[in-house]
Design goal:
With 282 residues, the protein is mostly helical. It has two domains: 2-55, no CATH class; 64-281, MetI-like fold. It is 73% helix and 2% strand. It is built from 14 helices and two strands; from the N terminus they run αββααααααααααααα. The protein has a two-stranded antiparallel ribbon. The longest helix has 35 residues, at 2-36. The chain is globular and about 75 Å long. The N and C termini lie far apart (55 Å).
């Protein structure tokens, strides 16, 4: 009886902590959502209160404040999605090779990818900018996309390596005995088992690519503009800040992120961590 009461108390404490942490994360978003509706805090009153009438008019003003906003939203979505796919496509075989290789310094090399992922974006931007200029990809969608993929690739390799290193190798060995090549082993044996990790990594890479500011800011001069760069224009000294319109633009820019998270949430639930069958290998 005492153990049951103690267990309920611990469960209640965990629930309260979870609610408090979630509320802390959602508070800035709720504040921005209210601002996008024209409801702003009135700091001149005591105690502070809210002023303004809720309206959707500020959403229709986004195009006036930033005429190319919808094009920039599409550019960000395409660039982040393609960059995430390129990153995972390149990182998956690299992580597999690293996980299955046994040589002196293997552990050091793996940790080196984490170090590379921890470097500030400026460490990548300068050489990437020079390289993009030399191959005539500066201020192009392809240049921004490939640069974003290059910046996030080390983290993808490190994350996927941790997942692949825990997988058993017996099905891969059986596939080799059956005459399967490396490409077939990766596609028919390893990928189905590692699908949840690959999908989760793809989602994380998309979010990171979407939020990159310095890379597209340095590699473009106005022809190609992503959402983070466009939103930064709302906070320049050259223009008077209309906070409700800027908040509305921010809320709209979250739509692709929310859609992809919802899509991958369903996809991840449909995956199961199971051992591949002979049908998968064949």
């Amino acid at each position: 009886m005492v153990g049951c009461v103690s267990g309920r108390r611990e469960a209640a404490i965990r629930l309260l902590l979870l609610v408090a942490i979630t509320a802390g994360f959602l508070l800035p978003l709720a504040w921005t959502a209210l601002a996008s509706l024209g409801v702003l805090p009135d700091n001149s009153s005591r105690p502070p209160s809210w002023r303004g009438r809720a309206t959707l008019d500020h959403f229709s003003e986004i195009g006036l404040a930033e005429p190319a906003f919808w094009q920039e939203l599409a550019t960000s979505t395409v660039a982040a999605l393609v960059a995430a796919c390129v990153t995972v496509a390149v990182s998956f075989p690299a992580a597999f090779a690293l996980a299955r290789s046994r040589f002196p310094g293997n552990r050091t090399l793996t940790q080196a990818f984490l170090v590379l992922a921890s470097l500030p974006a400026m460490a990548y931007v300068i050489p990437l900018s020079d390289l993009s200029r030399r191959v005539h990809l500066i201020d192009t969608l392809a240049g921004v996309t490939l640069s974003e993929a290059a910046v996030t690739a080390p983290l993808a390799v490190f994350v996927l390596h941790g997942s692949l290193a825990r997988l058993t190798t017996e099905w891969e060995e059986a596939a080799v005995i059956d005459g399967a090549g490396l490409a077939r082993i990766l596609a028919r044996v390893v990928l189905p088992v590692a699908a949840p990790s690959v999908a989760a990594t793809l989602l994380v890479m998309f979010v990171l690519d979407w939020n990159l500011l310095l890379v597209p800011l340095v590699l473009t001069s106005g022809e190609v503009k992503t959402i983070p760069v466009a939103l930064s224009d709302f906070f320049t000294f050259e223009r008077e800040l209309d906070w409700p319109t800027a908040a509305a633009a921010l809320i709209v820019s979250l739509a692709p992120l929310a859609a992809l998270v919802a899509l991958f949430h369903q996809a991840l639930e449909s995956f199961t961590l199971r051992a591949p069958t002979s049908t998968d290998i064949g």
